[in-house]
Every structure is written in C-alpha cells, then in structure tokens.
Amino acid sequence: MKEKIELVHGDITRLEVDAIVNAANRSLLGGGGVDGAIHRAAGPELLEETKTLNGCQTGQAKITSGYKLPAKYVIHTVGPVWKGGKRKESELLASCYTSSLQLASRHGLQTIAFPNISTGVYGFPKKAAADIAISTVMDFLSDHTEIQKVYFVCFDQENHQLYEKKLQEHLGE
Ligand code: ADP
Q1: Quick check: CB of 41 below 6 Å from ligand 1?
Q2: How far is the CA of 61 from the centre of ligand 1 (A)?
C-alpha cells in the first residue's frame, strides 16, 4: 500500500500520469482554481470535448483526453459545496474519489493524480477532506490491485502539511 501512494507538493498539470483528476463544477465547462489551470494547460480542445458531455452530477466523474497535458486523460469529478456538513457532503466527497478510481480502472489506467477536491472555493474543511480522501483511496486500493499509483497533489502548504501528517498516521512512515 505504502509504495502505491505518493504525496506531491505542486501543480497537478505538470504530472506525467495516466490521468489527472479535475475538481470541476457540474457544467464541466471550466472554472477557477485547479479547473482553470487544467483547461489552460490542456488547451481549447478540452473545452470542446467537455461541451459534449452534458455536465456531471456531484459525486460522479467523467473522462476526457488530456490534449496538451503530459497526462493522457483528465477525469472530471464534481465535489460537493460545503454547506455545514448535513447535506451528505462527506459521502459525496468520498464518492468523487471512488467514482474517479472506478473510471480509471475501467479504462485500464494505472496511475492517477488527485487534487484536494472541494477544499478551495467549495469550502470543505481541509482536515476532514484529507481524512476522507486518504481513507477512501486506501479502501479502493486494497481490493483493486490494477491501480499502480495514486498521487495526492497538494497545491497549498496547509493541505500539504495535513496530508504529510495523515499519511504518516495511516501508512506508518
Ligand atoms: P473546489 O471548487 O473543488 O473547491 P478549487 O479548484 O477551488 O476546487 O480547489 C481545490 C484544490 O485545488 C485547492 O486545495 C487548491 O489549492 C488546489 N489547486 C489550485 N490550483 C491547483 C493546481 N494547479 N494543481 C493542484 N491543485 C491546485
């Protein structure tokens, strides 16, 4: 398990992996934050493809090509907007990770990188989000050996520190 999870501090658009995950919105037509960075780095063809997808429900995921990105594919998932915690936000966030991994698996992909879904403008508390991300990915990896590597890509210092600590707790590093 330990060798299958890696923490990265930086920009997800730079990773050479089978798929990077985009924290998109339900329109899939681009936005700010990591979504904007991914669309800029992939080029306008990405928007042309996402326009054909008819959006995506919160907690679900859809896949496109990566175009100019070093990643072969982009898996677009829609995280929940934090509304205080009683609107199934935790279940929906876990579902983003599981749905993305299921999609990767169905497409025969082996390496996948996640941003910290919902922890930007969607306002999910970072600590709780990190717990959900790590435990959901670990659960999936324990019965899906086809996935070789999962990268948690933290852009901001706060998330990076949280993940460092939590991964140590979970993996005993
Ligand atoms: P959401 O709407 O799901 O909250 P945001 O894009 O606002 O999405 O933020 C999600 C996370 O993505 C935040 O933790 C933010 O720091 C991070 N982020 C922003 N740009 C990048 C990037 N280029 N690479 C990786 N993570 C990024």
Answers
A1: no
A2: 17
